[in-house]
């Protein structure tokens, strides 16, 4: 696969230089035309997936272009005190990759995935824009943002509270900006709106495990079918390396009618 | 010159991945042992100086290693709502470049420079840590941060006010964290503390011109010698390309007794 | 401007990973649709133009996308003992940039330029594929490759002879593969084939100066109009920084009818 | 781990710009002080290990700094028709990483590994400079260079012969420049010179499998102890991802007395 890393000025981010990593099919090969938006976790940047996993190899094996943006520690949100990373991700980025790389993917072959904060971002994107994606995956996702504080160790609660205020504002009214995944599920069920296929992975040793079973149960209760898989794993990159390959393989097999 | 770009985890930034660009002398050549911290402006990143100017060529001509960090839109501040970029720049970065590149520069041959927001950062660093630098340069610097709002066009004042609150807090008490350059000058004069040589460049067409003459006059009033140069120039990269070369040439000549 | 650096597998180079640097217009701005292939000199790589000059700034000012490939020390040739960099440059690279960046430039707005070995490459490309380019520029170009050995200091002649053998073969029959610029000029004059506009820059202190005046005279003798400019300059990057901006400005002015 | 990618001018390569990728321990963490030179295969470059495997993650887990140079298609040789990549690798590169990154590793904690052509390079380095390395690993290595032609499919033999001539010269006298691993083994046995620990991995489905069992048997015959492991695997990156992690884990365990 070909890979490019670079910088451009983002309108949504106030004109700021932002960085982007992409993996593209070799120009001389005809490969399946799938596109995957791959989202990073808290404290990561756009290079982290290529550095901690073998994702470029899987892109080759299973036939994906991959787009890896940078969103700072924004929780894929238009921050209460900070930049509009949600607008950047959901509106500007697709235009940017169309302009720079000629990527205009068909929703039927467009995917989104991410780990931890990026798992939340992945489902947030899929549930707010179901018409843009064929499937979405969360690996050890921080899926219940409104309860994040409860999952934080006592001695780090003050710092976490402060961070959450910066991102979501003092009142953390997640619903008002499409940020609560549970509410979004409710709304979709009521509207009987078709959803992308959801793939949820989590390790049983993960500190976010209970948050993940809660979301799984919420989907079940609302009769929203989803792929759910758990393993004896923690909140670590060796697991996410396994997850991303498994997700890409499953997508590839599903399209071949093997899943 | 050799050049490297990369990423590492910053403690001051909460463990976040941060990006760094450096220019180093070729390993097989003996070049003067000067080190320059080169700071970016608002909405730029660590790559901007190498992209908009020929700074690597000047590093070769005048004998400098160059360190170019990323500080987001922080105004080189521990942000009221955001990350501790001041701590990162002033405390962690020197340790990081010592660890990664073996750079342990002598203060007598260490310099800092920047444009716009980075001009403010350069003088803020030099006036808070005069013992670390031989000289500091500001190119079209936003030197009077407390009056930035006045320099902002009416229709952008709301957005600017919001940005300043995020950076400096609602009360914007610059003095309390060593952020007001005018106060720092007063303090140094009273303490008769030796200061790095200050180099101030500004274009007469720059929207920050009055802010720059105000600071120049403040230095003069307080009997702090400084190099001041103005040209018919605007707030643009062709001028900063001229400024950085001129500053590096002047440092080089001064050390040879030519200035 | 946006900029990307990356790697892909080249068919012409036997499947080898090759590196590419590009500068593209910001996705949200409508800029003139000019494309410039910008070629490096001996011992350089695809990053050198961005590192030693402010070319990204000029791309913005004058409205160019820029493609900067890597060709090793090949003299833009399918090497006698080595890789097929000429095929890569002249046939594969346009397809690659079309695939990766959606760049399908109109010949009327496509340009090529380079310095030293890259000046030769630029004119070689323009004279072999005049239908692809509106103009070509050589800065201090090694335009008379067949006499390169004469321009080499006595104590380096052996090494140079060896290098030339590796590139061009023991007999160095430049004509047989379209490598002699003087012969190409003759052929074009006879065929009355329309040529791209040629821009030739050289410093009077350059060790390749006589080679450049020889080529200028050859063009004059054959009634091929060309822009020729010489300055008191040597074979150095400060001059090429001047040359590339001047060339881009002249192209921009010419299209506006100012030249 | 921190990671940097960049460019510098190499003396051994005639002053040419060469590219280098490194992975370094985070500046704020005390990690084991192991250094691994990690070598690429034919048609790869300095970025390939980070792109096709999760090597940065293993560097973190097992405590290694990693140096990844670029050697073109040179077979880690001072090429008959080309550049002196052997001199670059074996003499200049250690000085370069000492200069740029302050890396001056103790031979007792210095390692070398590579796949395919890089497996050959790894053992060539270890057998020519046993005093510099604690261990060396070959993954699917092209260990018997003198028989490479026999391993080449009939329809590609001409191209391969041509490539080998460019690298090793018409007579391919491997012995004369320390390039035949079998001869080196003989010499070491006679001289009873201590050798680095050798780790040899190969897949049974690999087209170089017989070459690898031949070398394994040669070591056995000469009473040189080595770790040998084979799996049902082909000449592919998923296997090398497994190999590099396994090698690093074994080194780590051996130092802890677990191996």
TrEMBL record, chains A, B, C, D:
Molecular function GO terms recorded: hydrolase activity
Pfam families documented for this protein: Esterase
Coiled coil: none
Entry keywords, A to Z: Hydrolase
Protein name: S-formylglutathione hydrolase FrmB
Protein source organism: Alkalicoccobacillus murimartini
